[in-house]
Amino acid sequence: MHDLAPGYLTDVDGLSVGHADDAAALTGCTVVLCPQGVTAGGEVRGLAPGTRETDLLRPGTLVEQVHAVLLTGGSAFGLAAADGVMRFLEERSAGYPTGVARVPIVPAAVLFDLELGSAAVRPDAAMGYRACQAAISQPGPQGNVGAGMGATVGKVLGLSHACKGGLGSASRRVGRLVVSALFAVNAFGDVLDPADGHVLAGVRAADGTFANASTLLASPLVRTALLLRHTVIGVVASNARLDVAQTNRVASAAHDGLARVVRPAHTLFDGDTVFALSAGSARAHLALVCELAAEVTSLAIANAVRAAEPAGGLPSARALSRGSPAA
């Protein structure tokens, strides 16, 4: 088993990350705080998304900065956690000035984790607030934490053939430029090693080996899995000085990194969503920022499954590498 790729989202100055979760119910949320406001963009490529405030991330809209981004479990129910993030920021006078109140701008995306733990327990406003209280500007935990608590991967043949997913982060530095990523990985397909393309975690065949999720799409067996919901959601950030249009290009490039290591990606059953943040003044060519965004996205997704531990009766990539089939 390879060590985790280095770096964390908070390697970009001005960002802090907090998690809150329920280990018994296997759900949780992760917040990225930037109360000072940073330029933001985003792109949704999955065809089954659950999102909030994504329209305002397009170029040409009035509001060009956000004050937090929320990644959460709980399917559409989990969007309620953003209310707690807004309350936390409002109490600290962070938000878009309207003349009568400051309105915190908090885009959010959800993943579907209701089938692994308790479907009756979902992230709510109280959990979102707790995640804000726990936010730190240093590297934090990966794996079974926050929005990755109930994440799973490789569900083409149903949950019983899947592996545990999780939350992962990574970053790269080139001179003064820093580009980082944080992803919750709950993919329909397999997760591949960015270095050589072998399967790190994915669909498990009856003999314990990994099957090929893309090939299995042609099988009638896959129909039983379509009732499940999936999704990879994340944030890429840089300290480059970018405008909204450029930041949206970075989000688009990050999706390229996602598709390098998640197969298949952006399916009818995924809500794959990437938010991008520009939180600095470093001068860098957009092409370089985009290339690094794709790279750190791939590394963060791989870290998410490498750091995951068995849960809910599902094995993790780490456990499988040690020869332990399941929790």
Number of helices: 6
Give me the oligomer status. Answer: single chain
**Uncertain runs:** none
Determine the fraction of residues in helical runs and give it as a percent range: 10-25%
Short descriptors:
327 residues, alpha+beta, L-amino peptidase D-ALA esterase/amidase, 9-stranded mixed beta sheet, 3-stranded antiparallel beta sheet, 16 strands
Description of the molecule:
The chain is of the alpha+beta class and 327 residues long. The protein has a single domain, classed as L-amino peptidase D-ALA esterase/amidase (4-Layer Sandwich), CATH 3.60.70. The protein has six helices and 16 strands. Strands 1, 2, 3, 4, 7, 10, 11, 14 and 16 form a nine-stranded mixed beta sheet that branches. A three-stranded antiparallel beta sheet has the order 13-12-15. A two-stranded antiparallel sheet has the order 5-6. The longest helix has 22 residues. The model has no long low-confidence stretch (mean pLDDT 93).
Can I get a quick summary?
It is built from six helices and 16 strands.
Topology of helices and strands:
Blueprint: E1 16-22, E2 27-44, E3 51-52, E4 65-72, H1 81-91, E5 96-97, E6 102-103, E7 108-110, H2 125-133, E8 152-153, E9 163-164, E10 166-174, E11 177-186, E12 190-192, E13 199-201, H3 213-216, E14 231-240, H4 244-261, E15 262-263, E16 273-282, H5 286-307, H6 317-322
Parallel strand pairs: 4-7, 14-16
Antiparallel strand pairs: 1-2, 2-4, 2-16, 3-7, 5-6, 8-9, 10-11, 11-14, 12-13, 12-15
